[in-house]
Amino acid sequence: MYNLVMKDLKLGVNPWFFTLPVFTGALMLIPAWIYLLVPLYFCFITVPNTLGGFKSQNDLMFSMMMPVTKKDIVKARITVIVILELMHLAIAMIFSLFTFRLYPHMNYYFFAPHLGFWGLCFILLAIFNIVLLTMYYKTAYKYGAATTAATMAAILFAGSAQWAGIQSPWVNGIFYGSGANNTALQLSILIAGIVIFIALTLIAYRIAARRFLKVELL
Description:
With 218 residues, this protein is mainly α. Helices cover 75% and strands 0% of the residues. The protein has nine helices and no strands. The chain has helices at residues 2-12, 16-26, 37-56, 59-64, 70-102, 115-136, 144-167, 169-175, 183-212. Helix 3 (37-56) runs antiparallel to helix 7 (144-167) and helix 5 (70-102) packs antiparallel against helix 9 (183-212). 37% of the residues are buried. The mean pLDDT is 92.
């Protein structure tokens, strides 16, 4: 499985997509911007172009000729996607540290990049993963409908979360009011987001692997 992951990272993924997280992460430096767009750019740009690249390279047939199982192929591809997702979030988190230093007295209308905000980002990507992977591995090469549905699901979550943050007094208190400075509360939201991300991605893997086993490629 390790060799499959390295094959995807070195041959399948365009090197540009290892640089893109720096550019999207730098958007965190825009004062009081809609920061939920940063993880969404991964959904808009990286995934459809990467899956399209795999298809154009006929990577699936190449992988099937290797002495590996279908489950390993699915696991490797999901591992690559998760690596890219974590790169996007980790680099954006680093930039967000400078955001607070550059604008210490900024009044945020949209979510500020506190720890709880990153928990929401993990949940956003978890939703994206479970929709994308379960749909994509019905065929493992038709990615258009899967990426569109997954991106729409992620946008719906982001929009709903931001709307609740503005309109709901309870959610507003957590992300804008006294809760924003409550480190324990913010950390608990982040941890919950990470747990949801891991859980939904593992569920997506199980469903995707089961569906891919039924796919006839030859």
